[in-house]
Input
Amino acid sequence: MLLFEEMGLDPMLLLSVKELGFEVPTPIQEKTIPALLKERTDILAFAQTGTGKTAAFGLPVVQLTDPGLKATQALVLCPTRELCMQITNDLTRFAAHKPGMTIVPVYGGASINDQIKKLEKGAAIVVATPGRAVDLINRKKLILSRVKWLVLDEADEMLSMGFKDDLDTILSLTPSDRQTLLFSATMPHEMMAIAAKYMKSPLEISTGKMNAGAENVSHEYFMVHARDRYEALKRIADVNPRIYGIVFCRTRIETKEVADNLIRDGYNADALHGDLSQDQRDIVMNRFRNRHLQILVATDVAARGLDVNDLTHIINYNLPDDPEIYIHRSGRTGRAGKKGISISILHLKETGKLKDIERMLGKKMERKPVPTGRDICEKQLFNLVDKVEKVEVNTEEIENYLQVIFRKLEWLDREDLIRHFISVEFNRFLEAYQNAPDLNVEHHETSSRKNRQENFQGENRREKRNSSYDRADRTDRTGRSNPDASRWQRKGISFSRFFMNMGKNDQLDKKEIIQLINRQMPGKSVEIGQIEVMRNFSFFEIDHRYERDIQKAFQKVQFNGKRIGVESARPKE
Ligand code: AMP
Output
């Protein structure tokens, strides 16, 4: 393994690396840093958040940027404002010992004038969201003529958020002898097309899926009845008094409900979902980052911009349909060498999904018993004793009251006194869990129910296949299934295929797509063909005669607060 000292990094960068506490390079750093420092090739890297990719491109770019030159030499593009701030912070820390380096973040939703002032003062490196970058380019405030490095970070997310046109604009405006570095967790077709168009024989780097099945994340699950999910969640929180984790839910409604219940029941929790304004989201994220909140209940989409490294737990309130989403979720814990736990609260119907996830993880998830009332009381008791032992006593402030208190408690001996103090807090848990039922689904129940369940699931699957066939292959524009699938052939309809920049991660499904088309094309009788909803994007077919209308109809349309992008796609081979 190469060490940081052996990669060609300057002493001032090595000093920053040391101060940041990085001891050995991560795999992506080991491959990217020497390549960037020695060659001028483009780089196409498969890498997720948490792999150390910011330092992989950030250290060499900071080293090679000339602070004496006023011009912008590096442009880093990323999908969200949170990531923009985070990358800027990281780059600033890398540049801590390089005097005169100017690193400016520019992103939407904040005053453009303030950003212009900063750019005018000189910005050797600019970190930008694509929309704001294009705005500043059009105003001639962001000048790209001297850009040597163009970094596309989380490129797949930028595409799925509808920034393709902006990326095209920026890529075509930067000098052709620039070095392009593209980082992405997945490589959808659209991105390969960008890479083919704008990159010159890129060096491909793949570090695999960091954290996915990493040794330091343990994957556990509880098996309960669906109605006991919330109760099981409370027990996880109670048996881990120092929990610092994210509870992932599938929908905004569920997110709100779970968070409201936790708050009502006295937990230090809050919700993060798409119904909140950007300001509200910022407040919640900051409270969580600063550890003023212990439990964040979130949807996958809303938690995207949140990067916190020392989470103790990821809790799957239910399993996502796509195993990759589970991998993403659990990859948020167990980072930077720390241990992490990913717990899923399952009910019997989810055993199929569990198997899919295990297959993708390449390891078994361990079934654990739901903590009993006794487990929780014991854990809380020792946590309390620990707190009593370690509490800082403010001798000065308390002194005035002590004489009276000593006199009042005089009749209790030492042991009784301890009993009384502990009981103040402990009784709460004893009471709460006095008649607490066992939430575990019994083993015999599991197997007998499992058989029933498997049959049920078999039926379910068949039913699902049929229904998706109905919806996808035989749906008319009202969203009702069309009983006569061959009608189209008889009517001689030919379909055009379209790409849409949103998918399951945006809570989009086939029904929503049908509704969106219906809404945007009122009064027209448009036949809808096949619909495929992927993780970050979708495809749909409509009667080819409406090809132009559909693209026009979807201009400036939003779904869940995100701009929808619809483009013509080649037919499926
Ligand atoms: P990133 O994938 O760039 O978001 O980095 C994930 C986290 O890992 C950040 O908190 C970095 O500070 C940390 N990190 C990056 N490189 C290293 C390293 N070589 N050793 C330890 N931590 C690192």
Q: What stands out?
A: The mean pLDDT is 83. The two ends are 43 Å apart (CA to CA). The pocket of adenosine monophosphate is lined by residues 22, 25-26, 29, 49-55, 309, 336 (CB under 6 Å). Residues 443-473 form the longest helix (31 residues).
